[in-house]
Design a protein that fits this description.
The protein has 352 residues and is an alpha/beta fold. It has a single domain, classed as TIM Barrel (Alpha-Beta Barrel). The protein has 11 helices and 13 strands. α9 links the parallel β12 and β13. The radius of gyration is 19 Å and the shape is globular. The N and C termini lie far apart (48 Å).
Length: 352
Amino acid sequence: MNFLSIFRVITELIDPEWAHNAAISALKMGIVPSSRTISDPILKTKVWGLRFENPIGLAAGFDKNGEVVCQMLSQGFGFIEIGTVTPLPQEGNNKPRLFRLPIDEGIINRLGFNNKGSQVVLKNLFNIKASKRIIGINLGKNKDTESYSHDYILGLLTLAKYASYIVINISSPNTPGLRKYQRKDILTNLLYVLGQELRKLNLNPRPPLLLKVAPDLTDKERYDIAQVVMESEVDGLIATNTTISRPGYLRDRQKSESGGLSGQPLFDISTRVLSDFFRLTEGRIPIVGVGGVSNGYQAYQKIRAGASLVQLYSALVYKGPSVVKKINKELAALLRSDGYEKICDAVGADVN
């Protein structure tokens, strides 16, 4: 039995959260084999002044504490996003809180920003700062913090020095009241304050500031967010977080569990939102497309819908880490078959 077969058996039989923690431990111990990185000129791209070996990144949620950054990069990812990180350690919501939908290749989670806190993450990142690795840091707020800006400012001040880019996560459905921060007035003030604080740090280079949005926004909310982003110092968007909606075609018995849905059922929803934001921002703001990507064609669809970069997470659960190499190979072939010489030429090709 090969590693992938063993991986699939484990993910199907073992409690999802236990399996995730075991995977982190296995990576830390070096018992997960690396995958040879695809080095193909057509996959190289430059966004925010950062040079990406390939556009496929690991989404936030897998390595919450920055424990296995180098190990996951060795699986072929072009970049890694850690977190969500809160200033103080946080246990998260009550268990069980993570559910697989194997029939639908989806995942439902209501984890609630469980992580070891920014000081632990700071220690984990210290030794890899000097490298050229691209590491995004996804920031959130502690559940009991009342101020809408306090925890994001604190996270920024603590970790920005070690970030290739910073993500403001106000779109998780598992922290009560968090998504209200996407409201135009609150968002405007939040982004202004964070932009000011980031400038005060005088970092050179200054890490770009990204906003991660929900897929469950109304047309008006999307329009308002796009306007705020274009008028603020935000450098990019991540579209999207998990959805609280439940597509009618879901078949798995756990489909009604509360929490955010990711994986294959999120693909169409998140891609539509991605396309809308590309159109609403007139292609001026680089977007990271995430949600349901498990093959090269889906990654290509995200790019043609407006994504400059693409992330995945759930695909690792169902297809194993070798999926990263496979996606990159398929994506390179698709770009060439359509006559593109570089990724940026294909970005937004399907958006009117």
